[in-house]
Design goal:
The protein is an alpha/beta fold. About 45% of the residues lie in helices and about 15% in strands. Helix 3 links the parallel strand 2 and strand 3. The protein is globular and about 80 Å long. The N and C termini lie far apart (about 60 Å).
Length: about 210
């Protein structure tokens, strides 16, 4: 019986190895077929948590290769965040501009919100014209576009004209269809469950 069990295990192991060998062949062919390298326009949208978190993870990756990162926060500038504290330690590789005074329902002043977003966009436009900047994070730009604080056609023109190898990631709910159409990568964060609904407040290291 022991010998039968051993033979069965050996057979299962051989079957697994063969299955993984074939899988590797498929994966290797898939990887080898991708030859294009370019700056990507990426959009993180949807109602789920993690849009900005994922963008700052990409910023960390970029910094890991010694490339410059520019971060522009269009809405959440009033917050003291862990990601800002952490990434600014990489100075001078990181430039950070966050003129916002909080979410639009907090300021309750449309003219002031528009002026703040326009100021943020001027900084963003400079970064998007600088070939030395490897990644531009436009945090919550989708919110500014949703409320029409900025001109979407103008922003699309600037994004299209940016340096060839520069990556851009845009975050925020309700991404405009024109933006997702122009993007190379669109990820929609889906809300399955959120601790807010159980009465848990925003906490350091999780939300900010």
């Amino acid at each position: 019986m022991t010998q039968t069990l051993s033979s069965s295990l050996q057979g299962a192991e051989a079957h697994h190895r063969e299955k993984m060998r074939k899988r590797k062949e498929v994966q290797d062919r898939e990887v080898a077929s991708k030859t294009l390298e370019k700056g990507l326009l990426m959009v993180h949208t949807g109602p789920g948590k993690g849009k900005s978190t994922a963008a700052f993870g990409m910023a960390l990756r970029t910094l890991g290769y010694g490339r410059r990162v520019a971060v522009v926060q269009f809405i959440k500038g009033a917050w003291d965040t862990g990601e800002r504290r952490a990434l600014e330690r990489f100075d001078p590789l990181v430039s950070w501009h966050a003129p916002g005074e909080g979410f639009t329902w907090e300021t309750q002043d449309k003219a002031r919100d528009i002026a703040t977003c326009e100021e943020a966009w001027r900084f963003a436009a400079d970064a998007l014209a600088n070939a030395d900047v490897g990644l531009v994070v436009l945090d919550e730009l989708n919110i500014a576009l949703r409320y029409e604080y900025l001109s979407l056609p103008h922003i699309l023109d600037v994004l299209k004209a940016r340096p060839e190898g520069q990556h851009v990631v845009i975050t925020g709910r309700n991404a405009k269809p024109e933006l997702t159409e122009a993007a190379d990568l669109v990820t929609e964060m889906t809300l399955v469950k959120h601790h807010f609904r159980s009465g848990v407040k925003a906490q350091k290291g999780v939300e900010f």
